[in-house]
Prior knowledge:
extended, 491 residues, alpha/beta, 9 strands, 17 helices, 3-stranded antiparallel β-sheet
Amino acid sequence: MVLVGIEAKMLTSAQERHLSCLDCLARATKRLRIFSSVFIVCSLIFSSAIYLNSGTLQFNQVHLVHTIYNRTTTQLVGTRRLVECAPVQRIVFLKTHKTAGTSIGTILQRYGYTRNLSFAIPAKDTPVFHCCRYFKRTDVYQYTEQEVQFEPEFGNQTWGFNMMTSHAVYSRPEVDAVVPDGLYVTSLRNPVDQFESAFVYFDMMKQAKITTNNNTNPLSVFFTNPEKYRKRIRYGEKQVQNGQMYDLGFQSQYFSDPFYIRYKIRQLEREFDLVIIKEYFDESLILMKKLFCWEMDDILYIPKRIRDSGFRYNISENLRQNIREWNHADVLLYEHFNRTLWRKIEEYGAEFWQELDAFRRRIVDVTSLCEAGSQIIKDNVHHMNIIRLGNKTNFCRNLLRMDGEYTALIRKRMQVKEWRNTKRNTSISDLNSKQQTVKGNINSTKSKLSTNNSPISDTMNGKRITRVRKKIFKKIVKKIKKPVTKAVRKP
Length: 491
């Protein structure tokens, strides 16, 4: 019986150990399942981030960083919900020639000027930084070298400018030093139309000394010997061939190299957040509004400089082909970003067309309001018709103000601010110098008194009293010790 009891106890303990092991195994399995679920979720999040960053939604790394840190209202791209957004206020607009750059520049300048944002403007009193060399940070008015911060705290940048909108030849490191952590935008135009517009604007016919009859197209004469005529052009010489690629930093010696052309196009696609297409200007502005998280009124515009119809050349099919071959790099650039634009519009979703219709109706209303009673002035130098303001309200005045006018106002504001800072710093330095003078006089007076045995303490440790106090103390002691004698009256 004893043996049977012992055997039963052993079996019971063995069963308990077995059950405890099974319990441990169940808990371990449960933990493993939880860990696997967490791992799968993290993997999905990481793969989604890679998917977004790969360019499928056409938002590059800089845009995503802005989106993550600086947005406060919900953004939607099609049916996909991104993160929240707040208005972007660090923008670089690389202004190219004859591609609706004036209209875009005034939109950005109006937004920044009315919100007291800072602008990187040319140091010289001109609307362009430099036409024939790469942009340098030293070309900027009031630019000062500061400690470069490669990883600034997003939303808390205190160095650099908010916007840059003037003509410049693209150089990414130099521009980043002026407008850190900014979104990059530029504009392109059909190379045939852009070349014809630049040919008229820079008066290349006169510079190249092209002589024609009344019925001869100067562009056709130019392409009879383009190398001969291009050498005679000085004003706007960089716009004679592939002017848009040159403005975007592409060197002219590589114009005929297809590898370098495509390499530059891929580089620009990585570095620019949006490329506006002039032929689809309103569509591009809707994308820009979304990219910057702006309101509809922030992107309103009124055409200001319209070329006179008498200075437009008819372009035949043969001449069109000659222009395309001459500007081959610009053609590849334009076609690539035109496809990119429509891909972004498709990703935007069905609400894109609703916003576009509302925007165009708003443009019609604003144009009729602000152009009431306006006048058209002819610019005989550049063959332009300029609209003079009829409606004098601040709203219309800001809409019709030219980019050169905004640049002048911004420069004046910066000069006033610089004068105030100089005056304040001067007054502070004068006050400090006066304080130093007073302190110096006090110290010199103390030193003179100490040399003249004045009642200054013999030591600075506070153990001895001054010599004056010693004399006063002795006099008091003598009076105390002196016997007091009463006056006795004589009988």
